[in-house]
Amino acid sequence: MSDANFINAYNEVVLENFIAVLKQNFMFQTQIKFLEERVNTIPALEEKGNSYDSVVIEKVELQNKISSLTSEIENKDNIIKNTTNSDIDKHRLQKALNEQAKELEKLNNKVAEAIKLVMLKMILLIKNITSNS
Fold this sequence. Notes:
The chain is mainly alpha-helical and 133 residues long. The protein has one helix and no strands.
């Protein structure tokens, strides 16, 4: 009987060890499958990383372009403001010049009238002097 007990115990130990080895094998195969899935995702992740890098480079280029266009717009805006100010100044100066020209013409007319009056008075004075002599 002791041989039968020994064989039964031996068979139990072998079965337990077999089950333990199968569990370890299943666990190992599961880990391999999981790692294979992760390894298969690496190229896709690398592609996404490269795509991300190109998007970042494009973003930097666009930011630089926007910056240069913004400064160009600011420069053109300043030119327009200066031109507008120049046009306003030109208009203001032309208006002042026209007003002064009108005043000058009025003064010339007054001077001409005054000269006429002086001439008339001189003529009258000369006539009076000649008629009294």
